[in-house]
Design brief:
Strand order of the largest sheet: 11-10-9-5-2-1-13-12
Largest sheet: 8 strands, parallel
CATH architecture of the largest domain: Alpha-Beta Barrel
Bound molecules: 1-deoxynojirimycin
Number of domains: 3
Structural class: alpha/beta
Strand content: 15-25%
Distance between the termini: 23 Å
CATH topology of the largest domain: TIM Barrel
Number of helices: 16
Length: 563
C-alpha cells in the first residue's frame, strides 16, 4: 500500500457559523477561526476541512452558494481568508475547502440569468422541464420535504432542486457548466488550498428522462435516488475532473456520497484508476433508522453493535489494498456521536473516549468534528422556534401541520436526529454564551456548557480532549495505526467490539466495550503473543492484567501492542 500524507492525516472539521465569533454579531467567522489555530495545533490535527465560507444567502447555511469566488460577508473578506490560510500553513495545518457543485443558490448570477428566459445562454446551466399534466415533471421528493421541483412563473417551467427551493441543481450534462467548475477549482488550488470535500458529489449525474421514482408509500412525493445517486455519467465526470484539475495538484479529496456500496467506493478511490482519495459513506449513520424509512432523519430505532461491526468490517475489508476509508462518527449533518453511539449521561467521558479510540484505530483517515474532542452532546430545545436548520424546520412543518402528527413526538425525533444537535456553538468556556460570542448567538448554546467546555478540558489532564491529543500523537508515532490490516475478532459479541491491526512486523489489539455493563472479554486462542504493552486506555490499567481474560468496565477501551 502506498504511503501518502492524506492517509496519515487527522482532519478536523470546522462548521464556521458555530465555531468562534470574533466580532460579537453572534455568528462564527474567519477571524474567530484564526484565534483558535493554536488550539488546533496543540490538538495535533494537521488538516482542517472548512464547511462552506463562500458568499451565500444562507438558506442552508452556506451550502447554497451565490459566489464561488468570494467570502460570505458575515464570515469576513477574502483578505481574512488569505490570512487564515497563511496562518494555518505556518502551523503545518492544511486547508480543505468544501466544494458544493451539485447545486448553486438561486441567487447565483447563473441562475438569475437562467430564469430570465428559455433562450437565455445560462438556461441550460440548470435542469428545466415543462409541467406534466399541470403538475411537477416527475414525482421526486426533495431531501428537505415536498417536491424536488419548483415552478418558475416568468418562463412557465419547473426547475429541479434535490435540496431546498433555493438550491437549484446544476446541469452537469452541459460542458460549459463543468468547465466553469473546473476553472473555479483551479482558482482556489492556485491560491494554495490543499484539497476539497465534495458535497453530495455522487448526485451530479441524473438518469436520462428523469423517470418517476417507484412508489413505496402513500406520500405524494417519493425518493428518486435510483435516478440520481451514482448516476450513469458520474465516473465520466469524475474522470474529467481528475484529468482537468486534480491530477495537477497533490491534494486531499473526499467525496460525500450517500448510498454508495464498497464496490462504488473501490471504483472511485482506487489508487491507480480512481478519482478521489476517499469517500464519506453513510451505512453506519443509518443503523438507528428503520430500514427502508423514507427519511432516516424521521425514523428512530436503537442501533445494534453487531450491525455496526458488520458494516464497518465490510468497509475495512473490502477497501483494504484497493481504496481508502474515511472514518467519522459525526459531522454537521449528524447528531453528536457521544449521544448517539455512547452514553451522554453517567458515562459521557468514558464513552466519548471509547468512541475516539474506535475512530482513530480503524484503517483510514479520521475526521474529528468540532466539539467532539470535548464530548459535546445533543441538545433538546423545547420549542421548534429555537431550531434553525432548514431540514428540521421543514420536517416539523410537514409532519405537524400537513400530516397531523403529535408535535411532542416530532420534537422527540428532532432531539435525537436534528442536524442542529451538531450546530450549537462550540463551548469554549463557562462564561456567557460559552465564550462563543460576546453577542447573541444565531442558535442557542447547549445549556450544559458550564460543565462541558474547552477551558475545563484543558485544565483536566484526564479529559476527553487530552485523550484525543494522545490518540493523535500515537497515530503519528505508529504507522500500524494508519496502515495495519484490520481483522475483526469475537464477531458475535453483542457488547464488545475487538479487532487486531497487523503489519508484517507489528500487531495491535483493540478492545472496546460498547456497553454500560461489565462483560468478560476472552481473547480467542489463535491470537498468540509473548508480551503486551499498553498503548492507551480510558481507565487506569494494571500492567499485570491477563489480557486473555478481562472483565471490562463500562465503556472501557484499551489498545495493546502484542509482541
Ligand atoms: C450535504 C451537506 O453536508 C448538507 O449540510 C447540505 O444540506 C446538503 N449536502 C446540500 O448541500
Amino acid at each position: 500500500m502506498k504511503k501518502t500524507w492524506w492517509k496519515e492525516s487527522v482532519v478536523y472539521q470546522i462548521y464556521p457559523r458555530s465555531f468562534a465569533d470574533s466580532n460579537g454579531d453572534g455568528i462564527g467567522d474567519l477571524r474567530g477561526i484564526i484565534s483558535k489555530l493554536d488550539y488546533l495545533k496543540d490538538l495535533g490535527v494537521n488538516v482542517v476541512w472548512l464547511s462552506p465560507v463562500y458568499r451565500s444567502p444562507n438558506d442552508d447555511n452556506g451550502y447554497d452558494i451565490s459566489d464561488y469566488r468570494d467570502i460570505m460577508p458575515e464570515f469576513g473578506a477574502l483578505a481574512d481568508w488569505e490570512e487564515l490560510l497563511t496562518e494555518m500553513h505556518r502551523r503545518g495545518i492544511k486547508l480543505v475547502m468544501d466544494l458544493v457543485v451539485n447545486h448553486t443558490s438561486d441567487e447565483h448570477p447563473w441562475f438569475i440569468e437562467a430564469r430570465k428566459s428559455r433562450d437565455n445562454p445560462y438556461r441550460d446551466y440548470y435542469i428545466w422541464r415543462p409541467a406534466r399534466d399541470g403538475r411537477e415533471p416527475n414525482n421526486w421528493q426533495s431531501f428537505f420535504s415536498g417536491s424536488a421541483w419548483q415552478y418558475d412563473a416568468p418562463t412557465g417551467e419547473y426547475y429541479l432542486h434535490l435540496f431546498s427551493r433555493k438550491q437549484p441543481d446544476l446541469n452537469w450534462e452541459n460542458p460549459r457548466v463543468r468547465a466553469e467548475i473546473y476553472d473555479m477549482m483551479h482558482w482556489w488550488l492556485k491560491k494554495g488550498v490543499d484539497g476539497f470535500r465534495m458535497d453530495v458529489i455522487n448526485m451530479i449525474s441524473k438518469a436520462p428522462g428523469l423517470p418517476d421514482a417507484p412508489v413505496t408509500s402513500g406520500e405524494r412525493y417519493q425518493f428518486g435516488g435510483r435516478y440520481f445517486v451514482n448516476g450513469p455519467r458520474l465516473l465520466e465526470y469524475l474522470d474529467e475532473m481528475k484529468r482537468t484539475v486534480l491530477s495537477h495538484y497533490d491534494v486531499l479529496t473526499v467525496g460525500e456520497t450517500p448510498l454508495v456500496s464498497t464496490a462504488h467506493a473501490i471504483d472511485i478511490t482506487n489508487e491507480e484508476t480512481g478519482h478521489l482519495n476517499m469517500l464519506f459513506q453513510f451505512e453506519h449513520m443509518d443503523l438507528d433508522a428503520e430500514p427502508g424509512a423514507a427519511s432516516s432523519r424521521a425514523s428512530i430505532r436503537p442501533w445494534r453493535l453487531l450491525d455496526l461491526k458488520q458494516v464497518m468490517t465490510r468497509w475495512q475489508k473490502d477497501l483494504e489494498g484497493h481504496g481508502w476509508n474515511s472514518l467519522y462518527l459525526s459531522n454537521h449533518d449528524q447528531p453528536r456521536a457521544v449521544s448517539r453511539f455512547g452514553n451522554d449521561g453517567r458515562y459521557r467521558v468514558e464513552s466519548a473516549k471509547l468512541l475516539a479510540t474506535f475512530l482513530h484505530t480503524l484503517q483510514g483517515t479520521p475526521y474529528v468534528y468540532q466539539g467532539e474532542e470535548i464530548g459535546m452532546t445533543n441538545v433538546a430545545f423545547e420549542s421548534i422556534e429555537d431550531y434553525r436548520d432548514i431540514e428540521t424546520c421543514n420536517m416539523y412543518r410537514e409532519y405537524v401541520e400537513e400530516r397531523g402528527y403529535d408535535p411532542q413526538a416530532v420534537l422527540a425525533t428532532i432531539h435525537a436526529k436534528s442536524r442542529d444537535n451538531a450546530r450549537t456553538p462550540v463551548q469554549w468556556d463557562a462564561g456567557a454564551q460559552a465564550g462563543f460570542t460576546s453577542g447573541t448567538p444565531w442558535i442557542k448554546v447547549n445549556p450544559n456548557y458550564r460543565t462541558i467546555n474547552v477551558a475545563q478540558a484543558l485544565a483536566d489532564p484526564d479529559s476527553i480532549l487530552h485523550y484525543y491529543r494522545r490518540l493523535i500523537q500515537l497515530r503519528k508515532e505508529n504507522p500500524i495505526i494508519v496502515y495495519g490490516r484490520y481483522e475483526l475478532i469475537l464477531d458475535a459479541d453483542e457488547q464488545v467490539y475487538a479487532y487486531t491491526r497487523t503489519l508484517p512486523d507489528d500487531r495491535l489489539l483493540v478492545i472496546l466495550n460498547f456497553s454500560a455493563d461489565t462483560p468478560v472479554f476472552a481473547l480467542p486462542g489463535h491470537i498468540g503473543f509473548s508480551a503486551h504493552d499498553l498503548l492507551i486506555a480510558n481507565y487506569p490499567v494494571e500492567p499485570s492484567d491477563d489480557i486473555r481474560l478481562l472483565t471490562l468496565r463500562p465503556y472501557e477501551a484499551r489498545v495493546y501492542r502484542l509482541r
